Structures are given as structure tokens and as C-alpha cells.
Amino acid sequence: MNTTNLGVAIVTGASSGIGRAAAKTLSSAGFRVFGTSRRAAPEKSDGITMLTCDVTDDASVSKLVEEVLAETGRIDLLVNNAGIGLLGGAEESSTAQAQALFDVNVFGVLRMTGAVLPAMRRQRKGRIVNLSSVLGLIPAPYFALYASTKHALEGYSESLDHELRAFGIRVVLVEPAYTRTSFEENLARPDQLLDVYDSARAGMDAILRKAMETGDAPEVVGKTILEAATASAPRRRYAAGRMARQVSFLRRFVPESAFDKSLRKQNGLPV
């Protein structure tokens, strides 16, 4: 049994995939981990206490944080992992569908962060790890709305980090690339499909499924989350996995025109 005590952690979306891997990795390292899921899950699993929370509901988020504080008296780490995807042409989604996507991927993070900050400020200590994506750094054809949520998260996280350092709190980003989870199986589909995008949408779906087969294991991302959570002098961004590191490097140093051509080729679009 690990006797190291690294504090109390909350991991949202911890019932499967990256969230589950992160929760297990943090628990093994010495955190007392509370994982969340929208639907009821086994109360205890692999040393992780599972609680129900809907990040789109203010009352549900408040209840979760109150429950953790009542039991432990502190919160040292928040991992904002809960999120959903959407594959399709940007104009194929209604405004309502786009708002629902942002409500989970962006405003869910805002709700959770706002709920834990008072406790972290009192402690004068805390770390918030937000799960972004390489799609928060690069264009993402047929993932425009999903990528928009990750770009928003990038700007929010980096700005918030500057606001909170005076309280001993740091905010960092973890950016995975393709990861072998059920992400592609759970993707939302546009609510106003247009025939003109059928071929391109199907092609992108095939590219995604093939990429997922050779993607990183969730545990790779889990280890990166642990690094981001425990670094004494954290970086703003942590690329999770080899492909994510490559994309991050290329985005920074490859000329825009060359990057554009490469991205279109990789996504099966005319160059």
C-alpha cells in the first residue's frame, strides 16, 4: 500500500477512459481520489471513491464539493476531465447543440473550478489540471465546434493561472492526441445533417477510427496528469504522448503554409 499522502483530488469523468486512468494513477501515487460520473457508479473501486456529479448543473457541482469537504476538510487537486466530442461540419450543428457542447467542455470546467477555489484559497495551496487536446492548438476540420471548446479552455486556463498564483494555486493544461478510449463511439453527431458533407464526414470518421487503433493508452495520459499535478514548478502545458509532443513542436516551429498543407493531407483534404 502506498503510504505517501499527496492530498485530496477530484477527477471528473472518472468512470472510464482517461479519467479512470488518471484517477487510478493519482491514487497509486498517494492522492485520496474522489472520482465523478454523471450516472451512479460503484461507490468504491481501486481505492477511488466514486460520486455522482453532472458538471452542467450548478447544484450538482456544489453538492459534490460540499460532500468532499465535509469528509476531508480540503481539496488539493482538481482534474477537469469530463467532456464530450462532436464530429461534423460546423454548419451542421444548431446553436443549441453548440451551446450544449460548450456547457460540458467549457462551462463545466468553470463550474467545477469556481466551486473548489474558495477552499484552495483558504489553504493557500492547490492545483487545477484541465484536460485540453492537441485540437486546442491546431485547426480541426469537421471538429470545429469541439476544437473551439478546447481553444476556449486554453485561453481560460492560462489566464486564470496568472490570477491565482498569488494564492498558491496553479492551473495547468494537459494536451493528449489520439487516445485509445471509447471517445469515437460516444461522439455526438450533428443535429441538422447536410448531404453536401456526407462524404467528408464519413472520411473523417474513418480517419479517426484508424488513428484511435494506434493511439496512446489512457495510462499514458494518466501519467502526464500526475506529472502536471505534482511538479513543483509546473509548466503551462503538458503534451501527453509522442504524437501530442510532435504536434506541439510542429505547430510552434513549422511555417504556417507548410503546416496547413500537412494538416490537410493528414485529414484527407485536397491540398
UniProtKB/TrEMBL annotation:
Superkingdom per UniProt: Bacteria
Q: Which CDD domains match?
A: 17beta-HSD-like_SDR_c
UniProt keyword terms in alphabetical order: Oxidoreductase
UniProt cross-references to Pfam families, sorted A to Z: adh_short
InterPro entries given in the database record:
NAD(P)-bd_dom_sf, SDR_fam, SDR_oxidoreductase
Signal peptide extent: none
Which GO molecular function terms does the record list? oxidoreductase activity
In the record, the note on similarity to other proteins reads:
Belongs to the short-chain dehydrogenases/reductases (SDR) family.
Protein's name in the database: Short-chain dehydrogenase
**Which organism encodes this protein?**
Rhizobium loti (Mesorhizobium loti)
